[in-house]
Design goal:
This protein has 155 residues and is of the alpha/beta class. Helices cover 27% and strands 27% of the residues. A three-stranded antiparallel β-sheet has the order 1-2-3, with no helix packed on it. Strands 4-7-9 form a three-stranded mixed β-sheet, with helices on one face. The protein has a three-stranded mixed β-sheet with strand order 5-6-8. Strand 2 and strand 3 (41-43) form a beta hairpin. Helix 1 packs across helix 2. The longest helix has 24 residues, at 58-81. It is elongated, with a radius of gyration of 19 Å.
């Protein structure tokens, strides 16, 4: 039997500024994401949709989830392959396209990891493991859009 893993978060809308959703401009889009014994993540909608730019929006959280999942699989695979990663940084980006009805979809996400390994002999394997990490990432496998990778590896 395959293992199943269950995930729960609490979502709390904190944007009622007096009259609830009595009109489109009568409420804030702010919310908090929390979980047992975990720090709160402040959220809102994208500023293009009346959100607070100081809070994470769902689109950013999706890109962050893809980036984090890829990184964790990548580090795991490097450890198994004997590639010693000393540093991993990422500047991930996604493109969401709006549709005529006001909804939208992600067209693609690009991960741009910058990885430092301990020896020059590890660079080729370090580059190759990004493809395997993408194949293993639970989040990327669940998306209906491409997740591109443009890694930079150095020592």
């Amino acid at each position: 039997m395959r293992k199943e893993h269950f995930y729960n978060v609490e979502m709390n809308w904190i944007g009622n500024i007096g009259t609830g959703t009595s009109s489109y401009s009568a409420y804030k889009r702010d919310f908090d994401i929390s979980g047992t014994d975990k720090p709160t993540i402040p959220g809102s909608s994208d500023p293009a949709f009346r959100g607070d730019k100081r809070r994470y929006n769902p689109e950013e959280l999706l890109v962050a989830s893809l980036s984090a999942c890829h990184m964790l699989w990548y580090l795991h695979l490097c450890a198994e392959a004997g590639v010693v990663v000393l540093k991993y940084e990422e500047n991930a980006s996604g493109v969401m396209q709006e549709t005529e009805d006001g909804s939208g979809f992600f067209r693609d996400v690009t991960l741009n990891p910058v990885v430092t390994v301990s020896e020059t002999s590890m660079i080729e394997t370090a580059i190759d493991l990004h493809k395997k990490a993408n194949e293993m990432c639970y989040i990327a496998k669940s998306c209906n859009f491409p997740v591109h990778h443009k890694p930079t590896i150095g020592i």
